[in-house]
From TrEMBL:
<dbReference type="Pfam" id="PF09346">
    <property type="entry name" value="SMI1_KNR4"/>
</dbReference>
<protein>
    <submittedName>
        <fullName>SMI1/KNR4 family protein</fullName>
    </submittedName>
</protein>
<feature type="domain" description="Knr4/Smi1-like">
    <location>
        <begin position="47"/>
        <end position="191"/>
    </location>
</feature>
<dbReference type="InterPro" id="IPR037883">
    <property type="entry name" value="Knr4/Smi1-like_sf"/>
</dbReference>
<dbReference type="InterPro" id="IPR018958">
    <property type="entry name" value="Knr4/Smi1-like_dom"/>
</dbReference>
């Protein structure tokens, strides 16, 4: 799990790499970076106060998982994160997926709701052995949307599946089946940075 100090280092590293990427300097992603972000060399924001976090938890009627809460304490919103996720929401905008994209949920329920639920042996796979299309549609209404739509996708947290108190984290995208799932928000962020570095090395 990442603590606040780890988040500070990680977000600074992501900021440095994004802000030195030609695609984000003068390429087709450049408009995603604001002038003040370039000047500060920082893609984040001031960290959320404890009062702000408690207000968010009261509004959602749930306690946030530790790694995501620590992220918000370090930076109340962030982005762009990579080529696909352009903005992690600040506390004031974080909300349940059913309130922000109910049409999407209804489409999934209509198309896949009649299928049997994914067996545990198939669902609880992470990393290279995961089958992205093995998504449990019944979890969608309980997911927390934590990013804007980026490149036809977004990030969400699923409190119905927890690993050592951390909520399962999803990267949902229209251009791939189901969702890529992680054991925690911290794991998702670590893997996002890893994949971004792999993509930039290939260019």
């Amino acid at each position: 799990m990442m603590n606040s100090t780890n988040w500070s280092d990680t977000l600074r590293q992501i900021s440095q790499e994004i802000l030195s990427d030609p695609d984000f300097i003068s390429g087709n992603m450049a408009s995603l970076v604001r002038p003040e972000q370039r000047q500060a060399q920082w893609l984040g924001a001031t960290g959320a106060t404890e009062a702000t976090l408690l207000s968010l938890e009261k509004r959602l009627q749930i306690s946030l998982p530790a790694s995501y809460r620590a992220f918000l304490q370090t930076s109340d919103g962030f982005g762009p994160l990579d080529y696909f996720i352009w903005r992690l929401k600040p506390c004031a905008e974080v909300d349940w997926l059913v309130k922000t994209d109910e049409d999407l949920i209804q489409i999934w329920e209509r198309n896949m709701g009649a299928l049997p639920t994914v067996p545990d042996d198939d669902y609880y796979r992470y990393g290279d052995s995961q089958i992205d299309e093995q998504l449990r549609v019944e979890y969608l209404r309980g997911c927390l949307m934590i990013s804007d739509w980026g490149d036809s996708g977004f990030l969400a947290l699923n409190p119905a599946v927890q690993h050592e108190g951390e909520w399962e984290a999803w990267h949902f995208a229209n251009w791939k089946p189901g969702a890529t799932r992680y054991r925690s928000f911290a794991e998702l962020m670590q893997n996002t940075l890893k994949m971004y570095r792999e993509i930039t090395r290939e260019q």
